[in-house]
Amino acid sequence: MPVWYCTKKTRRARFAGGFSGLSVRHFGKPAVAFKRTCATFLAEHLIGDVMKNDPTSKEDKKGKEGVKMKKLYPDSYLFRRWGDGLSEAEQREAEELFQKYGYNTFLSDRLPLNRELPDTRDSRCVGKKYPEDLPNLSVVLIYLDEALSVIKRAIRSIIDKTPARLLKEIILVDDCSSNEDLKDMLNAYIAFIHEKRPGLVKMVRHPKQLGLAAARVSGWEVATGDVVAILDTHIEVHVEWAEPLLARIKEDRTLVLSPVFDNVKYDNLEVIPYNAAADGFDWALWCMYETFRPEWYKLNDPSQPGKSPSVMGILVVDRLFFGEIGLLDKGMKVYGGENVELGIRVWSCGGSIEVVPCSKIAHIERAHKPYQRDLRDTMLRNALRVAEVWMDEYKSNVYVAWNIPIKDHGIDIGDISERKQLRERLKCKPFKWYLDNVYPALEPHTGLIISNDLKRDLCLDQGTIPGNLPILYGCHVHPPQVCIKILTLNPISTEISQSQRCLVDLGVGQLPGLYDCKEAQSKNFHMLWDFKQVILLRETDPKETSGVSFRLRLFLPSCFVRRTRGQRWTLQQRTWGYSTVRGHLLRHRLCHPIPELL
After folding, report:
1. What stretches pass through the bilayer (predicted)?
2. pLDDT tens for residues 91-144?
3. Sequence-ordered strand ranges (E) for 130-254
4. Distance between CA atoms of 273 and 296, rounded to whole angstroms?
5. Structural domain count of the chain
6. Residue 552 lies in a domain
């Protein structure tokens, strides 16, 4: 049946290794099913109380109370909640640094390197005893043109929060940064550390940019510790972050572990605690948080590790086992997909992945990634690389998610022969086993015939206002209007993502709505659409006097009434290797009512 759905994600972060547009799904009982987006889910489930520690120093506040300076950049994400009292010169400096780094470097430069973080662990983590004979640890920090104060704070926190007997070395991997202060000034800071801890910090500098996966591998190649922790540099570790990870690997060397990330806001650098969640992904291989499987909740102990389909990018692993399992795919470019590839490979080839709630790391959320503002092209390339190596007959789902044909798509994914040989050498299980046993919530589009994107100057959009009324909005690349038409021979999946809503006709009026797909199915709402034209109604806010602000509604005319004021949709056909049912599949009309499929 042809069904419209929209997967709404926030602009918070696709951490296909970072955090910039996570959507969230909930699978398994005892939790209640819901259709929340990432922002809602985190607010209601993942995020604890916001830490009230104001990172602005008392000296900065003193003498400025009651003074409200004119904001030069009122529309900047940096100044929406921060920056009152800054002079115009300070605002210019702060905004320039913000655009350069994606977070508040102006404030970071003024915070102490050893600032205290709140202990956000579950109370059952506090006071836990760990073995004395834990394996030692090499910490690898990867960066590209990171702010110097952020790197120094990461190093400082690792030294302060990791027992000296466990911390063998810190390895800095510079993936060809251009910032001058990351040379002599960083070298000077390392020399200062070596006065008390000789040889603790090692430096790897790449003459050309290798990309995230290859940079992480180069850090592993230098490491000599029993266990390797591969981290971003825009982090601060919490107290006792290392011990629970090392203890778990001591029990099972085939584990790949992830700590729990607290969120450091990019504007005011406040720490927002997150609770533990599994690391999942969608068919486009964008990462998102999942709830753990039902068996974890039955433990009734949130301090216990939980199984996870993948990692969010930061990982801790036995050094030798990481080499045995194939490291990371160095054929990945720039950023994205490498963590999903690792997750599939580890589970399929003899290992497993866990999130360890008693290990917490505070991770700065960037407003943007300065080294590449648009990650779509590299993420697409890397996703196809994963699909071709690991996903067998399910790889078509990735092509559907990106709306490109399986053949003749013109995208060079590089040489994958070595990765295919690795899969054979490790005797890895088929991808179907991974779906059945590790990630059953990743439901494939079985019985798929065609999938189409809406492509026009105006696109179907869920909007930002809660509710069921879709709007038409100027087309852009952001996820609130990622809407596709799925034509399938099967009913709606029982495992359909709770963030998916279908375009339905309630049968009582002329305005279609967006409703939870399973709810719509259970209530027998009309979800079979015959696409031809949509009538636009302009709805002007009476408070607006300029007449510029408006939104457009979808309107369902009678199928037999011709209207001149029509919006004609352009649908770009993609076939996915399945037989086409009719030769005129795209001759559709959006009208009311719908008597039959075609």
Report:
1. none
2. 999 999 999 999 999 999 999 999 999 999 999 999 899 999 999 999 999 999
3. 137-143, 167-174, 201-205, 227-232, 235-237
4. 20
5. 2
6. yes
From 262, 265, 368, 246, select the one nearest 312 (Cα to Cα).
262
Domain residue limits at 539: 448-575
Alpha helices in 253-394 (DSSP H): 294-298, 319-325, 338-348, 376-390
DSSP state of 203: E
Last residue of a domain, one of 80, 108, 136: 108
> Position of tokens 């801890």?
197
Residue 541 falls inside a structural domain: yes
Look up tokens 């696109």; give the residue: 459
Distance, CA of 358 to CA of 122 (rounded, Å): 7
Instruction: For residue 453, give the CATH number of its domain.
Output: 2.80.10
DSSP state letter for 364: E
Ranking 33-37, 144-148, 247-251 by mean pLDDT, the lowest is 33-37
CB 529 within 8 A of CB 4: yes
For residue 437, which amino acid is it?
N
5 by Cβ neighbours in 10 Å (0-12 / 13-18 / 19+) ranks as buried
pLDDT, tens digit, for every residue of 46-97?
333 333 344 444 344 443 445 667 889 999 999 999 999 999 999 999 999 9
How far apart are the C-alpha atoms of 36 and 33, rounded to whole Å?
9
What gap in Å lies between CA 244 and CA 360, rounded to an integer?
A: 10
The answer to whether residue 91 is domain-embedded is yes
Reference 381, options 411, 402, 418; nearest CA is 411
Count CB-CB contacts under 10 A for residue 64. Answer: 15
Q: How far apart are CA 220 and CA 323, in angstroms?
A: 9
Q: Would 498 be classed as within a structural domain?
A: yes
Which domain-ending residue is among 41, 75, 108? 108
- Taking only the tens place, the pLDDT of each residue in 369-388 is 876 667 788 999 999 999 99
Contact 531, 588 (CB under 8 A): yes
Can you read off the two tokens belonging to residue 480? 């609130």
What span, in angstroms and rounded, lies between the C-alpha atoms of 488 and 232?
41
